[in-house]
Design goal:
Length: 138
């Protein structure tokens, strides 16, 4: 007998404590996940998505390098403090509350420099930041 429950979206097997765990259920889950990722990949078209994290140093300038230069990047401080989200566009503009920085681009490296050294914005010492970047393949 298979698992008693299924997830809402992909209908993956989800087990109750009394359910037997069957290898066939795991294989079915992997097949469903693989098919969903293949469909998503074909719809993503001509873009690459990068993600990662860094620890703030407090320096007024810091750089992020990518395989391809992103046209859009989101940076979020892990403690979700207001003003820690930045959206950087390739045209050299930065938007986000309380995040003032100049952007310079060299090859596939993006350097952000705080406009005010007393407000490091998205590089506060000891804070962890996560980022997601989208780059066009074309």
């Amino acid at each position: 007998m298979s698992s008693a429950f299924k997830t809402d979206f992909l209908k993956l097997h989800s087990w109750a404590a009394a359910d037997p765990v069957l290898r066939a259920d795991f294989n079915h889950n992997f097949s469903l996940i693989d098919s969903a990722l293949a469909a998503l990949s074909s719809r993503a078209g001509s873009c690459s998505i990068f993600s990662g994290s860094y620890s703030g140093t407090g320096d007024p300038a810091f750089s992020l390098s990518f395989d391809k230069l992103p046209s859009l990047i989101f940076i979020q401080r892990s403690d979700n403090v207001s003003g820690s989200l930045a959206v950087v566009r390739q045209d050299g503009r930065l938007s986000g509350s309380e995040t003032a920085a100049k952007i310079s681009i060299s090859g596939n490296t993006l350097t952000l420099t705080a406009v005010s050294p007393t407000k490091p914005g998205i590089n506060v010492s000891g804070k962890t930041y996560s980022y997601v970047a989208v780059a066009s393949v074309v």
